Amino acid sequence: MKKALQISILVLFLALVGLICFKMVSGQSAKSENRPTKVTKSVADKVVEESSEPSSSSAEEAAKPEAEPEWIKSETPIKFPILMYHHIADVVDGNTLFVPADEFKMEMTALKNAGYYTLSPEEAYRVLTTNEKPAEKIVWVTFDDGYKNALETAMPILTELGMKGSFFIITGNLGNEDTMTDGMLSELKANPLMSVGSHTVRHPDLEFSSNEAATGELVDSKKYLDNLLHQDTSVICYPAGRYNTETAGLAEAAGYKLGLTTHPGLASSVDGLFALNRVRVSYGQTEASFMTLIGN
Ligand SMILES: [Zn+2]
Predict the structure, then answer these.
(1) Where is the composition biased (Basic and acidic residues) (predicted)?
(2) Contacts of 207 by beta carbon, 8 Å cutoff, 6+ apart
(3) What mean pLDDT is predicted for residues 265-286?
(4) Ligand 1 center to residue 59 CA distance, Å?
(5) If you measure from the C-alpha of residue 79 to the centroid of ligand 1, how many angstroms do you get, rounded to a whole number?
(6) Residue 178's pLDDT is what?
(7) Percentage above 70 pLDDT, the chain
(8) How far is the CA of 84 from the centre of ligand 1 (A)?
(9) Does residue 19 register a pLDDT over 80?
(10) pLDDT digits (tens, 9 = 90+) for 226-237
(11) How far is the CA of 209 from the centre of ligand 1 (A)?
């Protein structure tokens, strides 16, 4: 009789310990959800995942619109296209900076159908610094000069397709007739697929700017965007793609991590993080010519 009592106390004790362990494990796995998974999963983790799946899946889906990609290390230096757009609108006077909305939509749909993954600036930095990528085919879609039509036309198309875009703003031109306002930048920033970078304050040719003038342009535009959007602006897109041997050092000192040029070709860390090539997309592309242009 006494032995039976001892056994039942022991069983109760073990059950309690088991329950505490289970709670600790499930708490940890919830906390580590957003971190890259390095931990090898124990049996207990698997049990927790399976048992909690039906109740938590809807909340997880709401928080994470896109599935977390699996990053794969590459044996050879990764090269990828950074697309450069300006106006997304009907062509005016044959100006090659314009791409009509239907062409832009065709191009983004072609990328999507071909399995391209669109990068954020942070993801592009990770690709270039660790030589690993989140998908077999990757692309970074960028817009220069901060035109209103890029927000009004390109953003809805990208959002509908679940694709990311980065917009490079001339902070001294905000609120002009055809350029975005502060409020529009906030609208961009509020969309989790969109990001905002600097295209300087006044769009000078940095190749021929003094170090002092270039630093002013780099620092002031970053400060403006950082304050307005509560971010750490990490990418500088050089006006007209022009820069000199000093520019990379000045940009890095100003707090940037990547610099974009207009030099044609695929982007690669081999060129340096502050001298990244881009692929200019002009109007008049067919799906076939567009895919050839980006090296697909
Ligand atoms: Zn520009």
Answers:
(1) 61-70
(2) 242, 243, 244, 247
(3) 97
(4) 41
(5) 24
(6) 97
(7) 77
(8) 10
(9) no
(10) 999 999 999 999
(11) 16
